[in-house]
Specification:
It contains 18 helices and no strands. It is an all-alpha fold and 348 residues long. About 4% of the residues have low confidence. Pfam families: B56.
């Protein structure tokens, strides 16, 4: 009865752009009510009570692997009420049926792989990540190699899709759970996230900046020192962004006491990439608030190491001077070429 009522072909996506939108404002974009929901709700309630109140050893002959795969398919429903019900049932089965846990984890991972590398469209990624957040929270220490591979091969690539904003909150929670359990993973995670840094998607940049700030608070000084240059190179590009929100978010990170403390102990790596962008902001950025925030960060950096800041300024001036000379020489070469071309034309 349950299978007949629940397992049905889902209608095609009402709008294919919903799941692939770059800037989904909220979850309402994935809300398409199912007309049969009053009926389906009763069926889901029966299934949930059956799972909660029956002996798993008896139910395993009926709730088998094909049943679980069919249930997993329903996470693609565009009705959030149905996805919430499927999530509750699926999670309860995972809790009460320990002999299915390995299979269910692998089945969920297959959904993530299909989403990242093939379709870039799935309504239930956030719901599945909520289940995973609870599972990760229950992992014992030390972490098994299988679970570390899940972090690196599944969770990190989920930062890649353009529609990451639709499920980023749940994704960031799962990643942070891993790093809190085993801080040594923090450096690896930060390095991998930097590989997926967007070039033109400002909303995604804002999400990743916030996630990186949280992750940095869970790594030690030695890890930060190794990551300082690539991390601050990305942040330096963000703080000089033409997008106001991105620039302000990157500058506000310097108000984080832990980040500032870590940066102060890796100034040789941080200053060369940050000073240039700060000075560029002060001279050229179009927004007054960004220029003011940049001035505050400049004061902070000068207090950290005034000699190194001055040294970076001198190097910056020398670079500008060399660039000016190269530009002048380039113009002279073009003038000589134009003059030679004019003479050749007159002789012919």
């Amino acid at each position: 009865m349950l299978s007949t009522n629940l397992f049905r072909p889902l209608p095609p996506p009402s709008n294919a752009s919903h799941a692939t939108a770059e800037f989904p404002d909220d979850e309402d974009m994935l809300t398409v009510p199912t007309p049969a929901w009053p009926h389906l709700q009763i069926v889901y309630d029966i299934l949930l009570r059956l799972v909660l109140n029956s002996d798993p050893k008896t139910l395993r002959f009926y709730i088998d692997q094909p049943f679980l795969l069919n249930l997993l398919y329903l996470f693609q429903s565009e009705d959030p009420r149905e996805r919430e019900s499927v999530k509750n049932v699926f999670h309860r089965i995972y809790t009460k049926f320990p002999f299915y846990r390995s299979f269910m984890r692998k089945a969920m991972n297959d959904v993530f792989f299909h989403f990242v590398y093939e379709t870039d469209r799935h309504c239930g990624v956030g719901d599945l990540l909520e289940i995973w957040g609870s599972i990760i929270n229950g992992f014992s220490m030390p972490l098994k190699e299988e679970h570390k591979q899940f972090l690196l091969k599944v969770l990190i690539p989920l930062h890649k899709p353009r529609c990451v904003q639709a499920y980023h909150r749940q994704l960031a929670y799962c990643v942070s759970q891993f790093v809190q359990k085993e801080p040594l993973l923090g450096g690896i995670v930060v390095k991998e996230i930097l590989r997926y840094w967007p070039i033109t998607n400002c909303q995604k940049e804002l999400l990743l900046l916030g996630e990186l700030e949280d992750l940095v608070e869970n790594i030690d000084q030695e890890q930060f020192r190794k990551l300082a240059r690539p991390l601050c190179t990305v942040m330096a590009k963000c703080l000089s962004s033409c997008n106001l929100q991105v620039a302000e978010r990157a500058l506000f990170i310097w108000n984080n006491e832990y980040f500032a403390k870590m940066a102060s102990q890796a100034t040789e790596d941080v200053f060369p990439v940050v000073v240039e962008r700060i000075e560029k902001n002060l001279k050229l950025h179009w927004c007054r608030s960004v220029r003011e925030l940049s001035a505050n960060v400049k004061s902070m950096l000068e207090e950290m190491d005034p000699f190194l800041y001055y040294k970076c300024l001198e190097e910056l001036k020398q670079q500008e001077s060399r660039a000016g000379h190269e530009d002048l020489n380039r113009k002279k070469r073009w003038e000589r070429l134009e003059l030679a071309a004019a003479k050749s034309a007159s002789h012919s």
